[in-house]
UniProtKB/TrEMBL annotation, chains A, B, C:
Keyword Protein biosynthesis: no
Cellular component aspect of the GO annotation: apoplast
Protein name: Dirigent protein
Family membership noted in the UniProt record: Belongs to the plant dirigent protein family.
Matching Pfam families: Dirigent
Any one biological process term the GO annotation gives: phenylpropanoid biosynthetic process
Purpose: Dirigent proteins impart stereoselectivity on the phenoxy radical-coupling reaction, yielding optically active lignans from two molecules of coniferyl alcohol in the biosynthesis of lignans, flavonolignans, and alkaloids and thus plays a central role in plant secondary metabolism.
First and last residue of the signal peptide: 1-21
Gene responsible for this protein: 25502135
Subunit details: Homodimer.
Localization annotation: Secreted, Extracellular space, Apoplast
Keywords in alphabetical order: Apoplast, Secreted, Signal
Length: 189, 189, 189
């Protein structure tokens, strides 16, 4: 009988364990979130201004009626759409060996302050990383840090999701800026 | 022996319960989907038309060869790309206190009828909500309701996913429209 | 006693089974990924070139300072933003009955080679499929195949996620191209 009651206790334990552990997709998850992967990169944007076509990594391609495509528009660049192909580096040096490219677009979308909306990918094809990470979200760039969503990935980053925290590491006039991206992935496959 | 058979029955029950409850990521889920969070907001778009720069919350910044950036193009505005920074309110009154901003872009993308593609965020920084919700998807705006994807979120909406059902709550000529967004989140963290 | 030890063995088995099967969201998943759904479609893009307004399914709506909106720009079309509403077919024949529309945009984003960034949806309203699938990602179109992310879906594709492998099935000058999209969904609801 002692064995049986031990058994019963064990059973109860299993039962309790699994009823709490079984995830329900539509239930609120616990608040302790450890990333399954954490990555830090820098990327460098040199915007075309009419004189730097050789070095430029980005260009204005859309602008409101009152703007043009060689000078960022008034009203905090509201309406300027910029396409970019920026080198990604592991440190904050523009001249370090790029390990990938940040490719996509940003749109300045507010008249009163600088803020933008981003849709882009990190595209890797190096010994360290192969594949891509895709991002989307609002970038209120006057904030010290701001979070955007990692909405998917391919290759080494197959099906990944997470949050990327951006910060402006350098800002030189209206032509060059450098962003630091700390990527925390919470869904890894 | 009776105890043992009861035990066996109990075991069988557990076994059956968990074999059906254990989720496999790549298996089709049950069709009963309860949102873990439901939110309703309104947002208000006043498009720049050359005369309303003070009130305008959006502007045409891209257009096909036959269009221009102060008047929406022919052919159901096909090709017009609009950047917006629209106030979000809890009711359908443009003059209610905004609790956030809807920021991003839409592109009219069909010649035969009105339809658009949306990429935008709800950005909150109020006592009610902090953080952002990111959206993407097709908006066939002549339909009474249409669904787009919630592709991610940050802050209070960390890692969220779901579906937002949009409906046009008001439409005044070519300058003002108001959308109702019912957001149903099915992944909450 | 034999029964009890059998029972114990059974218990141990259950325990082992579930401890390995219980998924932790933030843990790395096994590397065997079977799609829960696989779909293959073709879509057809005819870009407006000033002479084909009747047949064109897409148009340049943004371009860098050195470009224009009837001819794709120099430097591998860098900066050209194209809006499209392309028919989706089940085979590679442009004249097959469309079962939906591919709607959204692409932006050529590199000066040295052809590559683009895509944001678009497959919109279905047929007997086969109702609802939409939303995509985002980098399309290095000189590669034989390239992967983009399925970032969400609605209707029949409610909450879906996955990877779409694109390949250029045909390319006729600068006006017509046809893409094959093999969609592998790994999250089905």
């Amino acid at each position: 009988m002692k064995l049986i009651s031990t058994l019963l206790f064990f059973l109860l334990l299993i039962s309790l364990t699994y009823s709490s552990a079984t995830p329900t997709r539509s239930r609120k998850r616990d608040r302790v979130h450890e990333p399954c992967k954490r990555l830090v990169f820098y990327f460098h944007d040199i915007i075309y201004n009419g004189h730097n076509s050789k070095n430029a990594t980005s260009a204005i391609v859309g602008t409101p009626a009152w703007g043009n495509r060689t000078i960022l528009a008034n009203q905090n660049h509201f309406g300027d759409l910029v396409v970019f192909d920026d080198p990604i580096t592991l440190d904050n040096n523009l001249h370090s060996r790029p390990i990938g490219r940040a490719q996509g677009f940003y749109i300045y979308d507010k008249k009163e302050i600088f803020t933008a909306w981003l849709g882009f990918s990190f595209v890797f094809n190096s010994t360290q990383h192969k594949g891509s990470i895709n991002f989307a979200g609002a970038d209120p760039l006057m904030n010290k840090t701001r979070d955007i969503s990692v909405i998917g990935g391919t290759g080494d980053f197959f099906m990944t999701r997470g949050v990327a925290t951006l910060s402006t590491d350098s800002f030189e006039g209206e032509v060059y800026f450098r962003l630091r991206a700390e990527i925390n992935l919470y869904e890894c496959w």
